[in-house]
Amino acid sequence: MKAFVLDRYAKKGVLRPAEVPAPSLGDDDVLVAVHAAGVNPLDAKIRDGEFKLILPYKLPLILGHDVAGVVVRVGPRVRQFKPGDDVYARADDFHIGTFAELIAVKESSLAFKPRSLTMEEAASIPLVALTAWQALVEKAQVRKGQKVFIQAGSGGLGSIAIQLAKHLGATVATTASAGNAALVQSLGADVVIDYRQQDFEDVLRDYDMVLHSQDGKALAKSLRVLQRGGQLVSVSGPPDPAFGEAIRAPGFLRMVFRLLSAGAQRRARALGIGYGFLFMRAQGSQLQEITRLIDAGAIRPVIDKVFAFDATNEAIAYVDTGRAKGKVVVKVR
């Protein structure tokens, strides 16, 4: 099968198009013919070598985390899915490889594709929607009447997180350029801050939750817009000791996480605020809940560009610019 392979870590490197063997199928695996693959900043970060400690992959490696496609074959213990089913997933860490014609996905990570979406639209959903779900529903337990601040509302994660927060009944604030204000308002943002003209710290007060995806300076400011008892969930770091335990990191790495997050944890405690780092995980049952919300019209995909499979490197480079509105997708077949 054709795939795009990472041979070595390199900043702004390129993946090598190659003919590789079809993936082997475990007892609990589902072999999926890839129709479309979502492209995420995580793909570029792994390519650049930024996650070598957290995700020590063996090279060569097929990149790609999001998939939408059709079931080809199932392992002997698979019960939910059968050949011909339309499915989508965020492939598990250490089992990624959606920039290919076929991928084996764990049954527990797979969900039926929303009926209302095309394959390209479905491929844009899993990683960002699961991140939003695990931050807003699982960690922060956002409920009706609360105030939520979601950074970078026009991005892949922000565009989905705004819609989920509105569905949960929250008042939503976000940052966006003036050119993207109409987009984030159409997704449900109640307060839109033009980050080029205003500092969100001067506008927001007494928020219940912040979904942080930016740098350390924005993290410090975000803590100050929360009320006592509020929560900050960060997807951009610093990683905390709880994350080290969750991934069963070796002792030295847990110590590194403890040191990296010490300042943020200390500031949060002083303000009476909860701080947590989130590195999302694949979860088919949560994705099935998201499918229901999509088919009910509560969440819609936001896609910037669809690239041809041969242009996978160009798709990653475009995501790497940070200018995409919503998601970028590669059409495989």
TrEMBL record:
Coiled-coil ranges per UniProt: none
GO molecular-function term, one example from the UniProt record: oxidoreductase activity
UniProt-listed Pfam families: ADH_N, ADH_zinc_N_2
InterPro entries: ADH-like_N (IPR013154), ER (IPR020843), GroES-like_sf (IPR011032), NAD(P)-bd_dom_sf (IPR036291), YIM1/Zinc_Alcohol_DH_Fams (IPR050700)
Domain of life where this protein originates: Bacteria
Protein name: NADPH:quinone oxidoreductase
Residues of the Enoyl reductase (ER) domain: 13-330
